[in-house]
Amino acid sequence: MTKPLFTGTGVALITPFRKQETPDFSKLExxxxxxxxxxxxxxxxxxxxxxxxxxxxxxxxxxxxxxVECVGGRVPIMLGxxxxxxxxxxxxxxxxxxxxxxxxxxxxxxYNKPQxxxxxxxxxSIADVxxxxxxxxxxxxxxxxxxxxxxxxxxAEECPNIIAIKEASGDMGQVMELLRCKPAGFSVIxxxxxxxxxxxxxxxxxxxxxxxxALPKEMSDMxxxxxxxxxxxxxxxxxxxxxxxxxxxxxxxxxxxxxxxEIEGLIVNQLRSPLxxxxxxxxxxxxxxYNDFKK
Length: 295
Known about the structure:
The chain is α/β, with parallel strands linked by helices. It has twelve helices and eight strands.
């Protein structure tokens, strides 16, 4: 049986900025090499963690092309392409160059709070125009819109081009319903670093991880062990990373992970408004947790 395209550890790639809030392409290239060399299985470009919502179309296009060039086919790339205007999303997909990109990640529409049948219409429209496989993204904590298990399962059954869901509802009952009823070939991917091991134990195919920006080897090792059923090796890594997994989200994402990456010496801790740097107490906490982790 062929392994699903997006299995294992995907990294939700951050965008390094200079102090002037312009993209730092040199640091981005270093980060891409770091996570690939450390064993991640695929890259998620221009997702929520990238701060794509604060970028112009020209910046997103330039970053997409740069990431494709830097990755150079070493691992698959999943491109974030979502929104709350169905026509705008489908138009963007139709106008995008997908050379070097193996799939898209499309978030449930935010703010306008569609009905479940509206979600079906929205994602069917996206699947119809996308030349690459579609991964759904359910993150009600950000969108105020939960895609119910039966809606996801309907899309999985009716749209061959919809191959997976990044499930970040935190509702383990919903996760189990998806895993219990999903059709063959459809994957459930953890969207929450801290729930990755439990979800894999129930049948999930891996994670799209924020933590993997900073700890790509440890996350990738944990996921590989868990996918092999080797919890004796996976769980110690899970519990060792768990304090950091919680801390990086205490004041929102990607503020925490960018602070941690600066502590590691990999980037400058710079975000774009309306996001801002984490507080000094949290920064110090992250530094302490990271130093303890490395002991």
